[in-house]
Amino acid sequence: MDSGTAVATPATDERVARQSLLNKLLGRPEVGALTGAVVLFVFFSIVAEAFLEWNSLATVLYGSSTIGIMAVSVALLMIGGEFDLSAGVQVTTASLAAGMVSYQLSLNVWAGALISLLIMLAIGFVNGVLYVRTGLPSFIITLGMFLMLTGLNLGLTRVVTGNVATDPISELDGFATAQGFFSSDIEIAGVQFDVTIFWWLLFVAIASWVLMRTRAGNWIYAVGGSAPSARAVGVPVARTKIALFMGVSFTAWFLGMHLLFAFNTVQSGEGVGNELIYISAAVIGGCLLTGGYGTAIGAATGAFIFGMAEKGIIYAQWNPDWFLFFLGFMLLVATILNSWIRRRAEVAR
Question: Do residues 304 and 64 lie in contact, with contact meaning Cβ atoms separated by under 8 Å?
Fold first, then answer.
């Protein structure tokens, strides 16, 4: 006899529901950039015969590393919810400071580099403190710093050197060892790879470890997702933001030292506009403009895409005037693709 009692079907708890491998992959911020990098690599391998040569690979990786070193710290800052529009000219400021201090005071270049590091960390600290204390958008704070540093780089260099570039420092004490540290070559299979490539990979590894394995990484994601919520659960929002701005200044110093010791002298007007390239690399790599999302590996992949595009166009013997158009197109496509992937991953959960 039918009792009329319905048997309830237990609902699946979404917290323990298993996700498919595809959904897990789509949940990774860098998957769109990795896909784009593979497509771009195959494309230039077909249209440019020289692209697959070892020497070409070393050139592509070098170009990627000079973007990627900065893109790593810029990505962390963006994950934390902020921008730094002064990042490009900070690289030049670091080079100029080390070069002029070393030459004008006849110091060992390592002493000049250390003084430059302190100056750069102070700039990052000022950016962070101004943001925290004033409550103004980081866009405005760092735009102001960008303009001030651009003028300072040009004006102070001309006052000190009587020129628009620093004096050569190759004859100063410590130059050879500093050059070996910041700008030497490492031979692999008969091909010279610039040491910046390996520094870049190290910075990516450290940043990835910080983001995925440390409490500080949780803080970065938390303050980027919602600063008030993060503050409510005890996250040191102000200290985290200041540290992220100082991180950008540190990598600017490191890249600045590479440029100084690679070329022996630095033009004071360089670096303007590079901040947009660093931000674009991070965005192509999966970082959201709204913060709280992204990875260091994604930013590195975005930098690699830039490196491939810049050198691939040359190897394909195309007009390099189209480079910026191509990069703008890549930025739009990557942003749309990353947004679509993220929405699909959220629906699949």
Answer: yes
Classify residue 109 by burial, with Cβ atoms within 10 Å: 0-12, 13-18, 19+.
buried
In this structure, are residues 345 and 10 in contact, taking their beta carbons and an 8 Å threshold?
no
In whole numbers, what is the pLDDT of the chain averaged over residues?
Answer: 88
pTM, two decimal places: 0.89
DSSP-assigned letters across all residues of 180-196? HHHH-EEEETTEEEEHH
Question: Rounded to an integer, what is the distance from CA 221 to the centroid of its chain?
Answer: 17
In sequence order, the β-bridge partners of residue 267 are 165
Write the CATH number for 169. 1.10.3470
The encoded tokens of residue 88 equal: 């490009």
Q: Quote the CA–CA distance of 96 and 31 in Å, as a whole number.
A: 38
Q: How confident is the model at residue 1 (pLDDT cuts 50, 70, 90)?
A: very low
pLDDT, position 20: 59
Token pair recorded at residue 245: 């701005």
Whether residue 102 is contained in a domain is answered as yes
Q: Is residue 1 part of a domain?
A: no
How far apart CA 218 and CA 237 sit, in angstroms, is 11
Sign of torsion, CA 257 111 248 134? negative
Domain presence at residue 124: yes
Q: Token digits for 299?
A: 């930013």
> Could you write out the DSSP letters of every residue in 207-226?
HHHHHHHSHHHHHHHHHHH-
Mean pLDDT of 229-258: 96
Which residues have CB under 8 Å from 160's CB, separation 6+? Answer: 100, 104
pLDDT at 226 over 60: yes
**Nearest alpha-carbon partner for 328 in 343, 309, 300, 301:** 309
The number of domains in the chain is 1
3-state secondary structure (DSSP) of residue 318: coil
Packing angle, helices 274-284 and 54-79, rounded to 10: 90
Q: How many residues does the chain have?
A: 349
| Residue 149: alpha-carbon gap to chain centroid | 20
